[in-house]
Amino acid sequence: MDSAYDFSTGSRAQYEVALPKAKDFTDHLNRVTKNRAASTLKELYKYQSVPGMIVMAGGIPHPEVFPFETLSATVLAHDAFPLDPPRVPKKNKSVLSWLFSLPKPTISFTIPKYAPKPTDATTIQLSSSLQYAAATGPPALPLFLREYVSKVYRPAYADWDVLVNVGATDGWSKIVNMLVELGDAILVEEWTYPSAENTFLAYECERVPVKMDAEGILPEILEKVLSEWDEEKRGKRRPRILYTIPTGQNPTGATMQLDRKKQVYEICSRFDVIICEDEPYYCLYTGEWTPKGSKSDRSVLEQRLLDSQKKEGPEGNEAYIKSLPPSYLNVDTEGRVIRMDTFSKTSAPGSRLGWITANPLFIERLTRISEVSTQAPSGFATAMTTVMLQQWGFDGYIRWLRGIKATYNMRKTWICDAFADTFHLEFNQNKSLFPNGTRTITCYSRQEPRNRWDEKRDAHHKPLVTFTPPTAGMFIFLGVHVSEHPDYHDLVKKGENATQILVQKLWTNLADNLVLFAPGWYFDAGGEHAIGGNGYGYFRLSFSIATYEETYQAVERFAKVLDKFFHVK
Amino acid sequence: MDSAYDFSTGSRAQYEVALPKAKDFTDHLNRVTKNRAASTLKELYKYQSVPGMIVMAGGIPHPEVFPFETLSATVLAHDAFPLDPPRVPKKNKSVLSWLFSLPKPTISFTIPKYAPKPTDATTIQLSSSLQYAAATGPPALPLFLREYVSKVYRPAYADWDVLVNVGATDGWSKIVNMLVELGDAILVEEWTYPSAENTFLAYECERVPVKMDAEGILPEILEKVLSEWDEEKRGKRRPRILYTIPTGQNPTGATMQLDRKKQVYEICSRFDVIICEDEPYYCLYTGEWTPKGSKSDRSVLEQRLLDSQKKEGPEGNEAYIKSLPPSYLNVDTEGRVIRMDTFSKTSAPGSRLGWITANPLFIERLTRISEVSTQAPSGFATAMTTVMLQQWGFDGYIRWLRGIKATYNMRKTWICDAFADTFHLEFNQNKSLFPNGTRTITCYSRQEPRNRWDEKRDAHHKPLVTFTPPTAGMFIFLGVHVSEHPDYHDLVKKGENATQILVQKLWTNLADNLVLFAPGWYFDAGGEHAIGGNGYGYFRLSFSIATYEETYQAVERFAKVLDKFFHVK
């Protein structure tokens, strides 16, 4: 847990200087990005700090006319969320009593217009935060972020840097603006986040889906796509960008571990592909779900790491960081990874605050792009977030993330338990939905005669839905066995898109019964599928927002709708 | 002062329905903008509000894990700034005592995580503000903005709307992204804001400067440029966009009144040009400067309006709104005006909060662009700003603007008075700097023998600098008579760029003497000049930030540097 940056001085630690420097990726910049000039007015900045200088150069208002004199906040304490909440919430009159209604410890702070030490790099004051500022934001925030990146992601090259933005959507939009030419091809996971696609589809870009399993994209498929790319036949250059969500992938929930990342990185390096890792769910890596009363098949070491994570203090913090899947940055010796982080899941989405970690060339060009678009993120957001982080401290922030993670783990357990209590489950049956030995859960109706389950399974039992219990993020990606529907084969014979027709019908039935899932087809990147495929319809279920009772209600309603839909007797 | 929108219900008032609807400007959208699809995930929103629906469709965190429990602010009262501050600050030990050190009245508010009436359109609560949200922002803010646009700008067509953004730079960037094709030509003022140019220059756009006077662009020049445009010769289509800063233009300080706007609008309509009016300084329209001891040449009616503006209450508020130069929106019967407003000058630049007013087609496309880039502005900024506006109320906000305006007027008076006290002034002498009968002030050194000024002016007197006292904004655009410099003609003979060499030398002399002005060449749009031209070098002086004492110091240092530079004996 060395720090590449000394938080108090902002200087890089010695050891990191020994790492290689980033390669030159100039030829990845698009034409417009190469054209971008530094903001000419900003050149004046260097003169402005000369002592005694009367500055009449900038067009900035006097802070005395800012209406905001002080801003204050009450924020939860860094340890407000328990590390090991009970599996079932305690019953109480209030549905959310045990977790949410009890007052949690809080801290308060006030940000003045003028702070006592205005020139300290860590100072946040409204006269600066609410003033025009460099697109890099208030120095105190990148200072904190560099310490975080250095300690948690440990990039494998020396001269990386961070740049704040107004959230990962903005970050990705700026990356697309920096690298993409009209009509380019961009590598994506076979199921992916449609809003990320919308960013580049307008530029007439072709998405090139790569098949995946429960760890994400399959290296052999990626290699095949790239090595067999025929620029003449395709009418466009080989993809130079991979957009990927390695942890708690949206929508599949897939999480990629270190070995797979090494393989993907090696291929991307060979074919000169920039890896854009979008990691909103990184801190929500929760590990596997174990059914009630089952024994886990974890090794002794794995179990020890898990137990350590329930402890307060440095041991627990270190165990948590160790448990996180290493970032692509951790294998990035060349500087070809652009990582997107956001405060949306770790603080609040409405902050519109995130950051990019990348090589110095990309950071410089992205700064130019920011200067003529968003400029710095809102000073309200950076001031509030920075002071909160400072109040918690680095270790406190890690403890906060562990509390958040435990909360998501609890919610994930709720929904998996709800499936276990509502359906009859069979494990590891449907290899076709998640290949490569992924743990899967197939759900059967409890309406089917119970005693039959003691017999050898036979054709009478209809598998209804199958999913892999998520290890991160906030989603379950659930495959519906629409091929088991009585009308399926007739529809297929008629040449209809049976899967789409039936899954859409089921989705509407569900909405009519007051359960709203996200339709899987929203996330379909349009290629052939390794996960699922024909005969399987998909829903993405988010477990981030429903209460314990709502979660059970939703799964029970889902079971009833499924019974009716599949004509289960 | 009718309102097109009823603030409490958000519905349009009857009278505005009688106005024409916007024309169809679809053919102004560029190729990428035509490609943009609505964010598919957002389609789910309509189902989410069904009562009893268990929503597992979105990927949103539970507000309980937002660390922010409450946000509070202490803000200045709407009437914190006097309407008629004294011309010279009262002396005190503290340099800023009279204006700034006295405690000003404040109000305080706290925004809870959960408000009592969460579904009211005007409710601001952190569980919503800090959550993912539509790109249109929290409904309460556009409600306020529509009332403001309706009452202050009074657009001349019915179906305009507003869209929030993260400041005017972001707004302009999105407009460029919406309308501009690579290589387009864009109309700008002959002197203009370089950051606005940087936004489109990367797209290999050509700026087409239009000559101006103290009211801004000259209609006859605009018409000439458009009517004589030879698409074949130029290799590009006729300009379809005008970027303009009509009030307190940056850098010239020019302000355009209604009659001129009508002429420009008519030409733009005839040649199908979209008018993009960027109005950061609109509320800082302060009117003319009258030297100490001089009588104003205002008419009785003008004087009455000015006196009314010093009164508290509705009469003063109405006089203020009446005194503002009508927006291009006010003559826009077709919906071809895109207006950019920002809270940067009226609240604080670090808010990163502004809005666009435009026709419904443009608003819809800009919303799509926002969805894949910034999304909604930061909830910290919208929550704080909206509640502040609600606390002040509409009339209170107008009173706040009047206080701000009075403060800028005071600062403008300081710097003009400083010139009057430091130089010998002659009025309306140099027509060539600001054509069309603009009031100009030419400054002569006080080092020249005083008694000579009683004589008929002769060649011994070197005019040093000339400017037109600004009527809005925060800048003086000051022309230096570099052709009076002893080396000027020698340099010209040698074929050097004498103006540039000498003004750059003067700028450096000034910086060495601790006065930093913005160099005029930053703002040169690269065409022929009606304002100034060869033999004149320019500086832009901002009077928004310096204290009274600093203002005098700066002007005095400037005078000394000028004397030395021009070898005045």
TrEMBL record, chains A, B:
Cofactors, names only: pyridoxal 5'-phosphate
Keywords, alphabetical: Aminotransferase, Pyridoxal phosphate, Transferase
GO molecular-function terms, A-Z: pyridoxal phosphate binding; transaminase activity
GO annotation terms (biological process): alpha-amino acid metabolic process
Record bears the keyword Nucleotide-binding: no
SUPFAM superfamilies listed in its UniProt record: PLP-dependent transferases (SSF53383)
Residue span, Aminotransferase class I/classII large domain: 146-384
Keyword rRNA-binding: no
Descriptive protein name: Aromatic amino acid aminotransferase I
